[in-house]
Amino acid sequence: MTTTLSTVSVSRSLLAIGVLLASLTLCPDAQARRGKNDAPDIDRSAPVVRNTVDELRQLMDGQQLTELRTTYNGTYGASLLFNASTLQYYVSLFQGKEFWRVIKTDSVETAENVYETFVKQTRDLAQVNIDTIRLEAGKRYTESLVAYNEQRLRSLQQEADLQRQQAQQVSSAIQQAKQQAVSLSTDLRSSNTQLEQLNQRIQALQAQQGNPELSLPTPAHPTASTAHPVAGEAGTP
Question: From which residue to which does any coiled coil extend (predicted)?
Answer without folding.
Answer: 153-208
